Amino acid sequence: MSPLLRRSARKNPADSVVTLIGKPGCHLCDDAEAVIATVCEETGVRWEKKDITQDEELHRMYWEQIPVVLIDGAQHDFWRVNPDRLRKALGG
C-alpha cells in the first residue's frame, strides 16, 4: 500500500499535551482554560498554561491571537476554543 494511503496508528491521548498560551486578566483566556480543563480531564490528556507576559518569544508570536491553543506544540486554535473540535483533535 502506498505510504500516502496508509493510516498512521492513533496516538495515545495520554502522550499528548495541550498548551494554553494567554495572559492574566484576559477573559477569553479564562474561557479557554475552562474548556481545555474539562476536555483534557475527559480525555486523559495533560495540559499546561503559558503566560505571554513572561516569555518574549511567545509574546512576539502570539500577542494578537491569544488565547492560543497548541496540541503537541502545533497550533490548534486561537481566540475561542470549540470543545467538540478539541475533543476530536485529541482522539475523543
Fold and architecture overview:
The structure is a single chain. It contains 3 helices and 4 strands; from the N terminus they run βαβαββα. It has helices at 27-43, 56-62, 83-89, and strands spanning 17-22, 46-51, 68-71, 74-78.
Features:
alpha+beta, 3 helices, four-stranded mixed beta sheet, 92 residues
Number of helices: 3
Principal-axes geometry comes out as: globular
> What sequence of helices (H) and strands (E) makes up the elements?
EHEHEEH
Rounded Rg: 14 Å
The proportion of residues in beta strands is 15-25%
Q: CA-to-CA gap between the ends?
A: 27 Å
**Category by helix and strand content:** alpha+beta
pLDDT average, as an integer? 90
Q: Which strands sit side by side, in order, in the main sheet?
A: 2-1-3-4
What is the number of strand segments? Answer: 4
**Helical coverage, percent range:** 25-40%
Could you list the spans in which at least 5 consecutive residues all have pLDDT below 50?
none
Largest sheet: 4 strands, mixed
Question: What is the strand and helix layout of this fold?
Answer:
Layout: E1 17-22, H1 27-43, E2 46-51, H2 56-62, E3 68-71, E4 74-78, H3 83-89
